[in-house]
Design a protein that fits this description.
Strand order of the largest sheet: 1-5-4-3-2-6
Shape: globular
Structural class: alpha/beta
Number of helices: 3
Number of domains: 1
Radius of gyration: 13 Å
CATH class: Alpha Beta
Order of helices and strands: EEEHEHEHE
Largest sheet: 6 strands, mixed, barrel
CATH topology: Glucose Oxidase, domain 1
CATH architecture: 3-Layer(bba) Sandwich
CATH superfamily: Phosphohistidine domain
Number of strands: 6
Distance between the termini: 21 Å
Helix content: 10-25%
Length: 137
């Protein structure tokens, strides 16, 4: 089990970052289409998603991947610009759409949203609400 306040490290697939990002873990059980994230408050508004009503704003977001095709990078970038996006994204496998969205937000708005890939054991040790910090390898 992840210890409270533990720092996890992974391979950065998005923008390179030099600081440690901390927050509470929001663990999604299914891929997320970022079009379902309200850009005013960061709430997931997809009645078919198991975590409908949960909030990603400022969270360390763990998810199995994205869905929604070409809209995902744009919508992730928009949530970051609006100040309601996740503080960092943690994945078990690379997701190019999430990496692109975070990268573009960094370029356009100067706001870094780390995207890292961790091994399955680390990913599955993190529970919803755990306070964690993220760093890249």
């Amino acid at each position: 089990m992840t210890a409270s306040g533990q720092t996890i490290s992974g391979d950065s697939i998005g923008p390179k970052f030099v600081h440690i990002v901390s927050g509470r873990a929001v663990v999604l059980t299914e891929p997320l289409c970022f079009l379902a994230v309200n850009t005013k408050n960061g709430t997931i508004e997809d009645r078919f998603h198991p975590q409908n009503g949960h909030n990603v704003s400022g969270a360390i977001l763990l998810l199995p991947g994205s869905r929604g095709g070409g809209a995902t990078p744009d919508q992730l970038c928009e949530t970051v610009r609006a100040g309601v996006g996740p503080a960092a994204i943690v994945l078990k496998a690379p997701d190019p759409a999430l990496a692109v969205g975070a990268y573009v937000a960094g370029i356009l708005y100067g706001i870094q949203t780390p995207v890292i890939v961790v091994n399955a054991k680390t990913y599955e040790s993190i529970r919803y609400g755990d306070p964690i910090s993220v760093s890249s390898i």
